[in-house]
Amino acid sequence: MIRKLKSNNVNLKWITDSPGAGKKAALLIPQYNEASQNNIYARLEYFKQLSTQIKADIDLIIIDDGSTDNSLDEIRSFLNSTPCDFTVASVYPNANKVGALYMTVLEIEHEFIILSDFDTDLDGFEFLSKELSRLGARADFMGGYFRMLPLADGGGVTLFQQVEYAMARSLYRFHRNEDSVPVMPGAGSCYKRNVLVRIFEDHSGLRSGEDRESTLIGLKNGFKTAYIKDVIALTRPPRTIRTLIKQRVRWNLGYLETIDKEKQFYKKQVAESTRIGLRFFIDMLTVILLILLPFALLTLISIAPNYFWISILAIYGTGLLWCLAVVVLVPEETMEFQRKRHLSVLIFPFYKILVEYMSWNLALSQFFSNKKNNHAG
After folding, report:
1. What pLDDT shows up at residue 343?
2. CA 172, 174, 178, 182 torsion: positive or negative?
3. I want to staple 359 with a disulfide (CB 3.0 to 4.6 A). Which of 42, 205, 248, 302 is the partner?
4. Matching Gene3D superfamilies, A to Z (predicted)?
5. Is the dihedral of CA 122, 126, 130, 133 positive or negative?
6. Domains of the chain
C-alpha cells in the first residue's frame, strides 16, 4: 500500500504536537467530512472527556483524512477554545481511511494500536490493561476485538440490528478453538503495532471491507484473535431500512473484494475444513440460496402451491429457531434488548431476509461492475 500512497502524494502533518513515547497504546480515530454529517463539536467534546480519562496509559489521536468540508477548521477552532488531552494529525489528500491509519501508525511507536470510529462511544477501558498484558504475552496473537453494541433509539430497525449483532457475537464461540474470528471490527479493535504495520503493507487500501481484509491478512500470516468482551464499542446504527441496506451493500462489497484478493487463502481454508473455511463455505452457500430464493418460490407457487406455504413456514421457522437458540444458549449476548426481545425475535427473520436479499444483490452488481470497469481501464 505504501506505493499507492506515494503515487498519490499522501502526506501527514501534526496539527498538535505529536504524542511522545512512554504510553503503551494509542487510540486512533479517523474522521472525514464529519462537520457536514454530524455535530462535530459534540463528538470532539466526547473525545476530550475520554482522552482525559485514559491519558495515563493511552494517547488518543484524531486523524483528519483529507476532509473537503471545514472539518479540520472546526477541529482547530475547538482546540483553540479549550485545552485537550488528545492530539490531531492531518493526512492529505484523502487516503481512504486505511491509508490514513497506516501513515499515522508509521509516525508513532506505541506497542498497541486501538482502532475506532468518530461516531462510536467506547467504555470499559479500565479492563483493557489486563487484556493488553494477555495479548502481549502471546507472540501468536495479533490483537483483539471489543464487544460491539448498537446504540438503541427504540425504533424497529434498531431492534433488528440489536438481534443481528447478538447473532454475530454468538458466533464467536464457533471460532473460539482456533481464535480465528473473520472480522475484527474497525469501530472497536486493538492490534499489536508491529503486526498492524505488516498487515497494512499487504492491504489493498480499499475502503468497503478494510477491517475484514486486515483481519484476514493477519490470519493468513499465522496470527490469532481474541475477544475482549469487557471493553464495549457503542456504534450508532442506521435508523431506516434504506440507510441500513446502503451500509450492508458496502459491507458485502468489502467481503467480495476480500474474497477476490485472498481467494487462494479461502480455498485452502475450505480444503482444510478450518473454522474460517467452514464459515466462508456457509456464508457463500447462504448467499447463493438467498439469491435463488425468489425464483424457487415463484416456481413452487406455480406448480405446487401447498409446498410454497410449507417452504415459507420452514424458512421463517429456521430463522426463529436460530434466534431462540441464541437467546437461550448465549443470554449474555442478548441482555441489551431483554425487554423487547420477544418482539425482536419474532420479526427478525422478515427483516433479515429483506435486508440480506437487497444488499447482496446490489453488492454483487456493484462488484462485477467495478471489475468490468477495472478491466476496461
Report:
1. 66
2. negative
3. 248
4. Spore Coat Polysaccharide Biosynthesis Protein SpsA, Chain A
5. positive
6. 2-238 (3.90.550.10), 267-370 (no CATH)
